[in-house]
Amino acid sequence: MHKFLFIGFIILMFSALLLMQIGCTQEVENKTLSQEEMVALGKYIVSTSGCDDCHTPKIFTETGFVFDTTRLLAGFPEEQVLPPLDVNMIGPDKWIATEKHLSGWVGPWGISYASNLTPDNATGIGAVSEEMFIKTLREGRLKGVGRPLLPPMPWQVYGMKNDQDLKAIYAYLQSLKPIKNEVPQPVLPDKMGEFFANK
Ligand code: HEC
Asked: Is the pTM of this model over 0.70?
């Protein structure tokens, strides 16, 4: 009998702990964060979601590359010229190519360039509202309302983040130093031959 009482007590304790845990988690999710906390959360999400891999230019070292922190998230550098490429090697059953900053991509979709995510009004996302930004990642459209986003931008994955996370990403990006960097327009697949022939 004592044994059953003891087991009953243990189960009760565990249930209480579990309930407390659930209570805490909900509290964190529902807590309204200050602007500063939103920026910090956004920085954490961006730094751990691979955004820099494509959107931040690189500096080359003997062992590989590091992010150019003076141009954080400024996108494909406007002065960068794509090296020559045989477009016959590109295709669904062939190759996809990228250049040294991992921000210019050539694939069956044409040539795409990682956007400038800094708050520069003319060349970045300074003029994009929070609502448009969330729409961009949820619906995969440029500035939320424009043409469909090209690969390899993984918007389908990031669009699954909750509202607070997307708002935090936006708050962080808007807190960055604005960098004037005019990322080139994408090139359609049927224009790729011409593009590289002129190289
Ligand atoms: C594998 C490469 C890659 C990764 C990783 C990546 N992006 Fe992108 N992103 C791109 C490319 C390429 C484009 C341009 C697509 C186009 O022109 O259609 C783009 C476009 C965008 C745009 C659209 C900009 C506009 O003007 O509307 C936003 C916003 C964006 N990315 C945010 C992010 C965020 C935030 C992350 C990380 C959570 C991220 N990206 C990670 C490649 C990437």
From this structure: yes
